[in-house]
Amino acid sequence: MRLTTMLTNACLLGAVVTVTLYGHTGAASAQTITPVLLPPGKPASQMTTPAPAQSTTNNAANAATSSTPSTSTAPAATTQPSVPSVTVTEMTGEWGGVTKLNSTTAIPLMVEAQKRYAYVMAGGQVEANAGTFQLKGQTYRYLSDDIGTSVKLRNYLQQTFTRQASDALIGKYFIQYNGRTAQLDADGGSLLEWNRSTAKMLSMTDTARVYRLTVPYAGNAQPVERIVVKFSLVDGLWKINTAPHLIF
To answer: Signal peptide: which range, if any (predicted)?
Structure first.
């Protein structure tokens, strides 16, 4: 009777009851497990066991972990602008020189030097009619005004050649006549393509270098030419120290 009453009361409270029968006495005992109160009208099959509450410490730790970490960007290292090895004035295309000579920068120096050599050997500006004269049975022509004096001619050549190399060319092919610079009235040219040349250093000091230039002909019409060229450092710029007519 007591067991029946206990079971009835437990069921009314919504408790889960375990009944243990003791065979040797024929008695039974009941143990009540934690009661779970059901909301009105909701069957036990739809009940969800509530998740255990987290401590304040754990909540704070989780919040710190889940929050988006702040990032800090280190200031970019300041980079000093490098000085170009080959300088050409952009607006005018004026040659500025070579400050660091190597097998790469030697090529644009040679290309510029060849242009200047060809220009003076052609008498300067093609459209300028500087005039001609006869001397000792030969026809000479005056140079165009931009290179028409020994000072102008020398300054023009010394943008790529040393003073010694420039004077060697001037002394061999140019004369002063009636206060003007002149040369034999003849045309010439070269089929060597200096822009396709390569350079190999043979010797070097801080102020002097020697390179062997390998230069192909236009259309590879002939075997390449190999020409040894000397260079010198003059006032911070590298210049060709071989007479132009021995190179081009």
So the answer is: 1-30
